Amino acid sequence: MSDPTPSPAPDLLAGASAAPEAELLVSAPVQADAGVGTGDVPVADEPKAAPRLRTADRFQFVLGYGCPDELVGPDHKVRILWQVIDRQDWSAFSEPIKAREGNAGRDATDPRILAAVWLYATMRNIGSAREVDRLCKESDPFKWILGGVTVNYHMLSAFRVGHGDALDELFTRILAILVDKGLVKAKRITQDGIRVRAAAGADSFRSEERLDILLEESRQVVTELRQQVEDPARSAKVSARKKAARVRAAADKQRRLEEAVAQLPKLKEKQQETAKRAGNGKRGTAILEKTTRVSTTDAEARVMKMPNGGFNPAVNVQLATDTASRAIVGVEVTNEGSDSAGLAEPMRQQVEERTGQKVQEHGLDGGYVKTEDLERAHAQGVALFIPPKPARNVDNRGAELEPKPGDSEAVMAWKKRMASAEGKTVYKLRASTSETVNADLRQHRALKQFAVRGLKKVRCVTMWCALAYNLTIFAKVLSG
Questions:
Q1: Cα–Cα distance measured from residue 456 to residue 167, given in angstroms and rounded to the nearest whole number
Q2: What's the whole-model pTM score?
Q3: Staple 387 to which of 44, 111, 218, 366, CB 3.0 to 4.6 Å?
Q4: In sequence order, what are the beta bridge partners of 332?
């Protein structure tokens, strides 16, 4: 048999020539280095490969080990804060705790932990208990402070305002340490007030007549609710928790109304004193005819003129600052809208009790000028640095410090002191201490608007802010 005739080799050129022109454009290889002539045909780029990405695998099991101490670095400021807190005496905070050795019940939370949480939160300009509660679950520094202890916003909020006397003692002990180390002198202090928005709305203020009506209605509601709770037929479909919540809310509203009514005699007395100082003219009559109103939300809040020129429910926070160290050495909270309401001398006495130092020079704003304060300070050997109020008569402006025939020895000494170059230099320290401290607490220590009601609770919040400010400056010294 003869060999089969071999098949001819495929004609690549013939196949290529037979392909359509469009197919050639796609399949022709790209010659990167070849020159482009008049007969060259452009070719398309090859498609890019898929990118390589790190994707989340939330179902992969990971084994590891660690401890809460590794959550923050060795030089983190929260460690320094804890060193300061751990060295203090917390027996006053622990006194109300009912969980004791030998008694049944759940263990109480260490007050050092709660204090550290609030101080660190205040240093970070956080003043909301709910926000702090959230950070305790998400933020490593807060987790480090807790060390596995669980908290909630109810516990945090109650602790913040529930230890006024113990907090005051802690503030004083910190100042005593700074005095012993020679950092705080307190011989020259400055004082200024901050008007901070209260936890009350402008529309919550009611007149005496309206308060009496609301109080009577509230008492009727409380009585009706208690009757419903005691009647099984009327409250069968309501849970015990809802019953207690309704009665508690109604009783709380009644209590706030009773507090508002109790404030009326004080406000009326103050109104009469203000009208008496204004005289028997139109101004005094207008003051007496003005209707007295009290807030049903926060009975101790007062409508005050704010720094922006408006009027809002607020409280007057008074702070005293040591000019040598810039430490806050005195804290007080009042609902007096004017700084001239005898606030200088009590603050001076408070600073002397806290530091054990004699205040020799006291710088104040012009709103504090009162002849009675000048007389008492002069008798106590204290030099007040207060600018004079501008004269009402425009023609007498600039002559406020000139001696007058009826001036007492204290007034003469004050005028001579404030007219001197040295006195003006000392007074300028108030702007560089009190003003900057006030701004720091407003912008960086959560002293913007109070979320608590009543001067007692407001003072606790202010004390935490002042303590956080002092620890921010002196934490390394106190921990060393």
A1: 12
A2: 0.84
A3: 366
A4: 318
